[in-house]
């Protein structure tokens, strides 16, 4: 009797949440996901190899169709290449997270695309194994790619990236009871790459020390549920002063 082969679905849909990077003073270190908005990506199996853009709906009516200009397509292509897939995919993208709004719109698309394509593979990967492919997608928005929005969109909650080099070290942090985050979204568009280009490559030693002190206070406060420490770690001395003029 021939062995039965497990059939994978012809299509799969995944969604990923909006997120805030640089939480507190955790520039490129801390990300926070929130459920107010999501990107939804449907991956449809195709016989032709490669990745192509399908229907675009939601907050935008068009997105770049080139793999190297679209975070979702780039993440999907990276995963298919690594898996040695013998099929291609069409990605239908429903954008619920605005772009260039500081809400992790590019990361949400990359994570949702990686998750949807993963469901089509003969042997789907565990969630944590999707990180490098989502990061490759995020590289489209900025190179080197920031991790904070990606880890938040992939793992959910408040997430700390302690080490980017292999072996990667990522940890979800508890959010202290009674702590509420308010999201203010001014009608201003700022692309990730442009915002990062404003930052100085060097900082004074004293600023680095004070920034480290505040980051340690914020992380310790979250871990211990001690709001006074969280509050002590909210003043950004490193990044916000350099980019304050971008917001009204």
Sum this structure up briefly:
This protein is α+β, with helices and mostly antiparallel strands.
Word description of this protein:
The chain starts with 10 loop residues before the first strand and ends in a 5-residue tail after the last helix. It is built from 8 helices and 6 strands. Helix 2 (105-118) packs across helix 4 (148-155). The protein is of the alpha+beta class and 248 residues long. Strands 1, 2, 3, 4, 5 and 6 form a 6-stranded mixed β-sheet that branches.
Total tally of structural domains: 2
Radius of gyration of CA atoms, rounded to a whole number: 19 Å
User: Beta fraction of the residues?
Assistant: 15-25%
Number of helices: 8
Based on secondary structure, the structural category is alpha+beta
The CATH C-level class name of the largest domain: Alpha Beta
Give the proportion of residues in helices. Answer: 25-40%
Largest sheet at a glance?
6 strands, mixed
State the total count of DSSP E strands. Answer: 6
Secondary structure layout plus pairing:
Blueprint: E1 11-21, E2 30-46, E3 51-58, H1 71-83, E4 88-95, H2 105-118, H3 131-138, H4 148-155, E5 158-163, E6 169-173, H5 192-197, H6 205-224, H7 227-232, H8 240-243
Parallel strand pairs: 3-4
Antiparallel strand pairs: 1-2, 2-4, 2-5, 5-6
Features:
alpha+beta, Ribosomal Protein S5, domain 2, Alpha-Beta Plaits, 2 domains, globular, disordered N terminus
């Amino acid at each position: 009797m021939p062995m039965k082969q497990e059939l994978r679905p012809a299509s799969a849909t995944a969604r990923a949440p909006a997120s805030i990077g640089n939480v507190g003073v955790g520039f490129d270190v801390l990300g926070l996901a929130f459920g107010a908005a999501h990107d939804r990506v449907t991956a449809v199996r195709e016989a032709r190899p490669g990745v192509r853009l399908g229907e675009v709906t939601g907050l935008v009516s068009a997105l770049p169709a080139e793999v190297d200009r679209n975070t979702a397509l780039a993440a999907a292509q990276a995963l298919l290449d690594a898996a040695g897939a013998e099929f291609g995919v069409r990605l239908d993208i429903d954008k619920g997270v605005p772009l260039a709004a500081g809400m992790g719109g590019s990361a949400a698309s990359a994570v949702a695309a990686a998750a949807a394509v993963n469901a089509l593979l003969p042997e789907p990967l565990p969630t944590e194994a999707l990180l490098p492919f989502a990061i490759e997608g995020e590289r489209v928005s900025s190179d080197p790619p920031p991790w904070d929005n990606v880890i938040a969109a992939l793992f959910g909650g408040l997430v700390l990236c302690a080490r980017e080099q292999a072996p990667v070290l990522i940890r979800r942090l508890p959010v202290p009871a009674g702590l509420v985050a308010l999201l203010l979204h001014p009608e201003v568009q700022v692309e990730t790459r442009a915002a990062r280009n404003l930052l100085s490559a060097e900082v004074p030693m004293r600023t680095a020390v004070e920034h480290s002190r505040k980051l340690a206070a914020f992380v310790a406060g979250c871990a211990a549920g001690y709001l006074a420490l969280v509050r002590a770690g909210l003043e950004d001395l490193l990044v916000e002063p350099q980019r304050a003029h971008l917001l009204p």
